[in-house]
Amino acid sequence: MAPPATQNESGGGDLARYEVIVGVSGGIAAYKVCAVVSSLVQRGAGVTVAMTEAATRFVGPLTFQALTGRQVFTSLWTAQAYFDPQHIRLTESADLFLVAPATANILGKVAAGLADDLVSTLVMSAACPVVFAPTMNTRMWENPIVQANVTRLREAGYSFIEPGSGWLACRTVGTGRMAEPETILATVCEHLRGRGAKAEGRTRKAEGRTRKAEGRRQKAEAEGGGL
Ligand SMILES: Cc1cc2nc3c(=O)[nH]c(=O)nc-3n(C[C@H](O)[C@H](O)[C@H](O)COP(=O)(O)O)c2cc1C
C-alpha cells in the first residue's frame, strides 16, 4: 500500500512547492525546532531534517520523521542501497537551509571551513541560502571567538536569526536564548518569499515535463499506438 500523501505532496498550503532543509545541532532548544518544522509542513513546505549526533541526544530522529513524513539524515556514512551523495543532493533541491538550534560548535566549524559531519558538510556544500538560529549560554554567546565567527559568517553571506534574552537552560537569565518558533517561522517565510526562484523553476520544469508527456501521448494516439 502506498504511504499517505504528506500535505506538501498533496499540494496544499501557502508554502507548497518550497523545499527547506533544517539542520539541527545539539542544544536544548532542539525541542522548539519541532514546532517550527511542524508549522512549515502544515503550511505545505517540503521539509528534510538533518541532525548532528549531539542533536539526537535532545530529540529523537523519529520525532522529526513523524513531523515531516520523510527520512531524517543523521550521518554521512549511512549505507544506501545505491550511491547517493546526500550532502550534495539534499541542498541542491532546497530553497533554504535553516540551522536551528545552531550551537557554538557548528558556527565555529563552518566559520573555520570544517565539514566533519553531515550537518557541517551540508552547510559547506549548500546551494541555497543558509540561516542560522544560534542558541547558547550567555558567556558562550559573548565569547569573542564566537562573536568573531558570527561576524565572519555574516561577511561570507550567511544570515542569522538573533538569539534573544530570557530564561536559559543553564537556569540563568541572559542573552543566548534561541529566537521563538514564531520568529523563526516568520523569518523563514520572508526568505522563501523573497526568493521563490527555485520553487517556481521546479514548477515550470514540472509543467514542461507535463506538456512534453502530453505531446508524446497525443502523438502516440495519432499514430494509433497506446497502451
Ligand atoms: C544539556 C546540554 C545543553 C546544551 N545546550 C547547548 C546550547 O544551547 N548551545 C550550544 O552551543 N551548546 C550546547 N550544548 C553543548 C553542545 O551539545 C556541544 O558543544 C556539542 O558538541 C555540539 O555538537 P554539534 O554542534 O555537533 O551538535 C549543550 C550540552 C548539553 C549537555
Tell me what you see in this structure.
This protein has two domains: 177 residues, Flavin prenyltransferase-like (Rossmann fold), CATH 3.40.50; 31 residues. The protein is 44% helix and 15% strand. Helix 1 packs parallel to helix 2, helix 1 packs across helix 8 and helix 3 packs across helix 5. It starts with 18 loop residues before the first strand and ends in a 5-residue tail after the last helix. Flavin mononucleotide binds next to helix 4.
Keywords summarizing the entry:
single chain; 227 residues; alpha/beta; Rossmann fold; 2 domains; five-stranded parallel beta sheet; two-stranded antiparallel sheet; 9 helices; elongated; disordered N terminus; binds flavin mononucleotide
Strand count, sense and barrel status of the largest sheet are:
5 strands, parallel
Arrangement of strands in the largest sheet = 2-1-3-4-5
Which series of helices and strands comes N to C?
EHEHHEHHEHHEEEHH
Task: Please tell me what the overall shape is.
Answer: elongated
Count of domains: 2
The average pLDDT is 86
**In terms of per-residue confidence, which ranges show pLDDT below 50 for 5 or more consecutive residues?**
1-8
Enumerate the distinct ligands.
Answer: flavin mononucleotide
CATH topology of the largest domain: Rossmann fold
Distance between the termini: 24 Å
CATH C-level category of the largest domain: Alpha Beta
Computed over alpha carbons, the radius of gyration is 20 Å
Helix percentage range:
40-55%
Structural class comes to: alpha/beta
Please report which band the strand proportion falls in: under 5%, 5-15%, 15-25%, 25-35%, 35-45% or over 45%: 15-25%
What is the count of DSSP helices, taking H or I runs of 4+ residues?
9
